[in-house]
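Support request, please re-run this one:
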Amino acid sequence: MQWLEMTSASELETALAEACAKYKIGEDDSFLVRSLLERDERRWPGCCGSGCEPCMNDICDAALMIKKRLAKRE
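Re-run finished. Output below.
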């Protein structure tokens, strides 16, 4: 998680907003994406199959997009 510690708040907010927009995750649910960034990917939840919105697959994809983008800077 070293990349997260080295990321400024504004960089993180920008990446979060872009990822949420791409995956159509509303501002009210962006905390779900943010909460995954500090967790090991193996512990991320999966889709429950109930058709809920936002789907955990989209939330996980958004978090992964942020991690890849910000980790490239290391």
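The chain has a mean pLDDT of 91. The chain has four helices and no strands.
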